[in-house]
Structure formats: structure tokens, C-alpha cells
Amino acid sequence: MGIVRLLIIGVVVWLAFKLLKRLTKSPSISKNSMQNSPPKKMVQCQQCGLHVPIDEALSKESDYFCCSEHRDEAS
Ligand SMILES: [Zn+2]
Asked: Which residues contact 3 (CB under 8 A, 6 or more apart)?
């Protein structure tokens, strides 16, 4: 009888520990996923004023443009 009771208590404690670990772990996961998507740097087209992400913009010297047409027009 004593051993069965001890076993049940052990399982309950183990389950509670597992649940607590999961509860304390989940906020850090959501924090990490937020850090994985930093805001993109936006630049303005010198010809039409359109804002485009820096990795999609075309640059000429120190100026940025939304498309090759506007880059050629600016010269
Ligand atoms: Zn433009």
C-alpha cells in the first residue's frame, strides 16, 4: 500500500514539474521568434519619393531608386 501511494505521489510531482518547465519555457520561445524578424530598413526613391526596402532598392552613388527607369531618369 505504501509503495503504491509513493508511486502516485512521484508521478504527480513529475507531471507538475514537467508542466512547470513547459510554462516557464514558452515565453522565451515567443521572444526568440520576435527577434528573428527585425524591421527592414526602408529607403526613399530620389525620383518619385516611394519607400522601398533597402535590399530591393537600386542604388547609384549615395542615392536609392525604386526601379532602373527612375535611376536612369535621375542622371
Ligand atoms: Zn521611383
From this structure: none
How is residue 5 written as a grid cell? 501511494
CA 63 – ligand 1 centroid, Å: 11
Residue 72 CA to ligand 1 center (angstroms) comes to 10
- Determine the straight-line distance between the first and last CA of the chain, rounded to whole angstroms: 91
**pLDDT digits 0-9 by tens, 56-70:** 999 999 999 999 999
pTM of the model as a whole: 0.48
| DSSP-assigned states of every residue in 8-62 | HHHHHHHHHHHHHHHHHHHHHHHHHHHHTSPPPPEEEBTTT--EEETTTSEEETT
